[in-house]
Amino acid sequence: MSQTDFDVIVIGGGPGGYVAALRAAQLKLSVAVVEAQHLGGICLNWGCIPTKALLRASEINHLLHDLPAYGFKADGVSFDFKKIVARSRAVSKQLSAGVAHLLKKAKVPVFDGHGKLDGTLANGRRKVLVSKDGAAPTTLTAQHVILATGARARVLPGLEPDGQFIWSYKEALVPETMPKSLVVIGSGAIGTEFASFYRNMGADVTLVEVAERILPVEDVEISQLARKAFEKQGIRVLTSAKIGTLQKTATGVSIPVTVNGKADTLVAERVISAVGIVGNVEKIGLEGTKIQVDRTHVVTDALCRTGEPGVYAIGDLAGAPWLAHKASHEAVMCVEAIAGRKVHPIDPTKIPGCTYCRPQIASVGYTEAKALEAGYKVRVGRFPLIANGKALAMGEPDGLIKTVFDAQTGELLGAHMIGAEVTEMIQGYVIARTGELTEAELAETIFPHPTISESMHEAVLAAYDGALHF
Ligand SMILES: Cc1cc2nc3c(=O)[nH]c(=O)nc-3n(C[C@H](O)[C@H](O)[C@H](O)COP(=O)(O)OP(=O)(O)OC[C@H]3O[C@@H](n4cnc5c(N)ncnc54)[C@H](O)[C@@H]3O)c2cc1C
Hints:
- This protein has helices at about 15-25, 40-45, 50-65, 80-105, 170-175, 190-200, 220-230, 325-340, 370-375, 390-395, 420-435, 440-445, 455-465, and strands at about 5-10, 30-35, 110, 115-120, 125-130, 140-145, 150-155, 165, 180-185, 205-210, 235-240, 240-245, 245-250, 255-260, 260-270, 270-275, 275-280, 295, 295-300, 310-315, 355, 360-365, 380-385, 400-405, 410-420.
- It is of the alpha/beta class and about 475 residues long.
- It folds into 3 domains: about 5-155 and about 280-350, 3-Layer(bba) Sandwich (FAD/NAD(P)-binding domain), CATH 3.50.50.60; about 165-275, 3-Layer(bba) Sandwich (FAD/NAD(P)-binding domain), CATH 3.50.50.60; about 360-465, 2-Layer Sandwich (Enolase-like, domain 1).
- Strands 1, 2, 3, 4, 5, 6 and 20 form a 7-stranded mixed β-sheet that branches.
- α3 packs antiparallel against α4 (about 80-105).
- Flavin-adenine dinucleotide (FAD) binds next to β2, α2, α3, β4 and α8.
- InterPro entries: Class-I_Pyr_Nuc-Dis_Oxidored, FAD/NAD-bd_sf, FAD/NAD-binding_dom, FAD/NAD-linked_Rdtase_dimer_sf, Lipoamide_DH, Pyr_nuc-diS_OxRdtase, Pyr_nucl-diS_OxRdtase_dimer, Pyr_OxRdtase_I_AS.
- One of its GO terms (biological process) is 2-oxoglutarate metabolic process.
- One of its GO terms (molecular function) is dihydrolipoyl dehydrogenase (NADH) activity.
- Its EC number is 1.8.1.4.
């Protein structure tokens, strides 16, 4: 008979859940994962990874159409859209299988089914019911239960995905054909990545945002530069835009929109709704427990503990920022605390955020406005990529690196980047923030030449009037 009692049961096998299980196994805790659909969660199957595989294709398409700038000539360049989508699905499948392999190697059993907390205890241990296809549920028990059920797309009334004209991120990842025109509603990371992908594949794209600027969580200068870059690429950007009731037509959708009091109608073959996500708090047995839900997220303390002893929530289920690396970091912290290790609660200003549109955007810590709001006196440095040799050599001169320092202590408060490869470079500043480095250590750091990362150094020097190349 297979084991049913564990130290830890994790419900959900995404980057929160599977990482929690792997770490628990490393720490010699007996652990099981319950997963209803696919190991790797949204991240590997419907989020981070398949979007990046599609974006890689659109980057290549962009380059192919820019060949003369590099001295090349190629006629009749075309693409097979089905193959591009199939490649993205294959990458997801490979990684999901990789997670299954890692769990097997770590001897972590995976229960295939829907997991739900049972309010009653069995000999003082938590009960989890696992159901599959209407069969009688299997009962598992454990001392600790980690809820890692993730989140799904927020659905606005009138914008319910219909599998045809109205898409959420899921439909947008597996289109049968390339739409000629597309409206993307919502300009957070997900919306801008899809706008970028479809535009760079050749679609007419309109990006609609209700807030005053696109990418509203980013530093205002970065948002402005992103808008400028998108418009230069031919993306129509509407901000402070309120949409009315969508009408379906024979060939697509028609959406009334008002921008600063001026009415217009957007007509397109497809619309992608990217207006946020909601936590999967339903049907996991929270009713009648002391676990609190705030809107659609489980409330936890700094160590991911819920109001119910022995029950934890991590990742998207536990709220913003909705990022895979935040989910995995919480997973490790939560399990290490369960194992009795000393852990450090996460400081949200040390979590990087990346958007893989063209040009890429990456940031960590305080924006200039947030730093001022928090009462800091700041010193700000800026370095444009047009003054960077590697960026010019690569043919990627558009972009900016901006640093925000505490004027009193010299601590790096935040860094904001737009341009080529910045999602790979932001980690340098994340290490600086995690180590609470000041401008002195950063100025003394030697950056390799020629790299775009030299601009990170220059943006530090610029904050102290010492930039050398601008
Ligand atoms: C289009 C898109 C692009 C994204 N790109 C990025 C990116 O580039 N970088 C980044 O950091 N983040 C990105 N994200 C966000 C990222 O995917 C999430 O933050 C991350 O997946 C959260 O991990 P999680 O483990 O909390 O939840 P999830 O990944 O959602 O995993 C939850 C798992 O729990 C399972 N489950 C749910 N309920 C039950 C139940 N009752 N019983 C059993 N199993 C259950 C689900 O099937 C799922 O596998 C993106 C998201 C989307 C939608």
